[in-house]
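Human: Cast an eye over this sequence-structure pair and say how the chain folds.
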Amino acid sequence: MTKAVKIGLLGCGTVGSAVAEELLSGNLPHLSLKKVLVRDLNKSRNIPSVLLTDKADDVLCDPEIDLIIEVLGGEQPALTYALKALDHGKHWVTANKELMAKHGPAIFQKAHQNNKQVRL
């Protein structure tokens, strides 16, 4: 049996919630949601509270997490998180057009230095 890829999710707004729900649905058994970075731990969500954190390092620095999905939007703190995640050996997936338009080359260079992949 193939080992499940453990995922850290940055952001839990409209897009992030939909991503989390799909990962938790059981339809993707090879993917496992491990942690979700949120701004407000007290906000009601359809995600088990044990998965939630308001500390980015709980996701970015967790040695069990293989892949980070960023759905925060904006330039910062997404750039800081991307570079830190890559430094910690994570693969990076983002839909953040602003981040990639302004900092794509630096992010790809960091990924290359760490033998990791960035996906848009």
User: Anything to note?
Assistant: Helices lie at 14-24, 56-60, 78-87, 97-113.
